[in-house]
User: Which sequence fits this backbone?
């Protein structure tokens, strides 16, 4: 028999034939009766040995008994403690990630993030000749405001507003200072009068009052005033922030 | 005599105890290794390990195994790796007409009477294989039942080369034909 045929026969019984080699062996067997007979004979041998255990070939009866004995599979004892510790650590890390990145931020943090500064537009600041007529305490209060010391500015502006009840501009900056220093409940009371007035600060006051209401937990008030700001044609500067807070409500 | 050879002597004296030790300590390692390195189930790996132990006994009994290079567990690993290779090939085998696993069709179906005759012939053939004794019996079983190639059989039965295995198998088959 050809070496090639021997190779193919061995590969066939070793289950190592490729599809092409299987077709080749089939073709060779069709063309060569002695190869076909050899293949059929070895297939018969293969069939005859299928149902007989290797262990039956062991002559020593004691060894054969051991070979045929079923040894139960012993479970590997693994302490679960380290696994629980890893699981707990992973769960904690997951919670931290969720807290930092996934869970929605609190409404107050949204308010703080979207409470933009309102620039000091008081005329006495830009027109030197008017500054001389402005009282010293007002200059000092707005100096604190310009320096972003809002908590101190709010305290300084309170007596000024009390002394100038008709000045909605002073009241507006007081309200902004309260919002920026997160004194939301006080800011609501201060800014409510501004939005009810015809003062030019009325429109931005809607925005800051909306923030103050949100910070104080009054969502309806917040939604109403922020929407009033967005509905106003002049409500442009803080539109993005107002929308963000409404979304968080 | 070193400790490794003592393992063989210990087995001869106390096959049950030594085997129990192998199954308790070596088999979990083998199954762990097999699961990590081959896509083979624990159940199949346990079967492979049992066959490796049987081959070890056959080799020891026939004198093909007289001394160990490593431990008995290492020796079983060597046999087991060859058996796993063959087992993995068997899972992706290509059949031919006449093959045990070849799908039965109208053309290949022998019919009930012919099947009875074929079964009787298989039994007679097995009796002849069994009567050949070692090493033909193991060699034919490993070739046609386990699907090992000549190199793998040389490795597990301790023959010098695959060519020796081919020559031996040819002689065994010739004896069967008589």
Assistant:
């Amino acid at each position: 028999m050809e070496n090639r045929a021997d190779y193919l026969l061995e590969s066939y019984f070793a289950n190592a034939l490729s599809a092409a080699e299987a077709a080749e062996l089939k073709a060779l067997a069709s063309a060569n009766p002695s190869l076909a007979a050899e293949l059929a004979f070895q297939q018969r041998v293969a069939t005859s040995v299928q149902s007989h255990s290797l262990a039956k070939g062991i002559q020593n009866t004691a060894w054969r008994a051991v070979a045929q004995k079923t040894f139960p599979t012993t479970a590997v004892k693994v302490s679960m403690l380290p696994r629980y510790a890893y699981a707990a650590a992973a769960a904690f890390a997951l919670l931290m990630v969720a807290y930092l990145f996934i869970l929605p931020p609190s409404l107050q943090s949204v308010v703080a993030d979207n409470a933009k500064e309102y620039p000091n537009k008081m005329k006495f600041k830009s027109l030197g000749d008017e500054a001389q007529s402005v009282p010293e305490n007002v200059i000092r209060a707005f100096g604190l405001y310009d320096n972003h010391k809002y908590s101190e500015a709010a305290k300084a502006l309170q007596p000024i507003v009390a002394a100038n009840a008709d000045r909605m501009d002073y009241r507006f900056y007081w309200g902004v200072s309260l919002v920026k220093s997160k004194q939301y409940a006080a800011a609501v009371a201060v800014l409510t009068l501004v939005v009810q007035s015809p003062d030019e600060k009325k429109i931005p006051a809607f925005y800051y009052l909306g923030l103050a209401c949100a910070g104080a937990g009054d969502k309806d008030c917040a939604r109403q005033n922020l929407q009033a700001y967005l509905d106003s044609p002049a409500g442009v500067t803080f539109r993005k922030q107002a929308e963000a807070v409404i979304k968080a409500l | 005599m070193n400790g490794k050879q003592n393992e063989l002597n210990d087995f001869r004296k106390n096959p049950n105890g030594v085997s129990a030790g192998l199954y308790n300590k070596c088999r979990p390692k083998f199954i762990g290794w097999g699961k990590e390195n081959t896509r083979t189930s624990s159940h199949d790996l346990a079967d492979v390990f049992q066959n490796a132990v049987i081959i070890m006994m056959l080799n020891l009994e026939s004198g093909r195994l007289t001394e160990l290079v490593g431990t008995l567990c290492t020796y079983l690993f060597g046999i087991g790796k060859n058996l796993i290779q063959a087992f993995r090939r068997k899972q992706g085998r290509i059949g031919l007409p006449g093959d045990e696993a070849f799908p039965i069709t109208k053309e290949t179906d022998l019919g009930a009477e012919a099947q009875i005759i074929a079964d009787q012939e298989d039994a007679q053939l097995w009796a002849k294989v069994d009567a050949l004794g070692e090493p033909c019996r193991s060699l034919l079983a490993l070739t046609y039942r386990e699907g090992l190639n000549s190199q793998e059989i040389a490795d597990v039965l301790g023959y010098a080369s695959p060519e020796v295995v081919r020559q031996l198998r040819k002689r065994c088959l010739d004896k069967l034909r008589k």
